[in-house]
Amino acid sequence: MDTDAVFKALAHHERRKLLDRLFAENGLTLNELCKGLKMTRQAVSKHLRILERANLVATLKRGRDKEHYLNPVPIHAIGERWIGKFQRRHLGALHDLKNRLEGEKKT
Fold first, then answer.
1. Distances (CA, A) of 50 to 6, 17, 22, 41, 54
2. pLDDT tens digit sequence for 19-36
């Protein structure tokens, strides 16, 4: 796995948005992914190529359509390597505390 390619792919907010959309609904075509985005079709294609090179998106040709699928394995591997070094339980407790405190500020 090319960790640098994964970090580069995840660094851009539009690519993360595409991954979120594939998480919500896997197997989308380019046209379906473009709906509701403020990007050109060419820009979406460029971002998808970067995600494919990082192995975060896999594709399947069905006739004339190319379906895009999220591959969460590289993200999991990064989490295991980087977050696994720390104690997850403690990080989880800090995250929960942060969310509770921020929730109290809003009320």
1. 9, 14, 15, 15, 6
2. 999 999 999 999 999 998
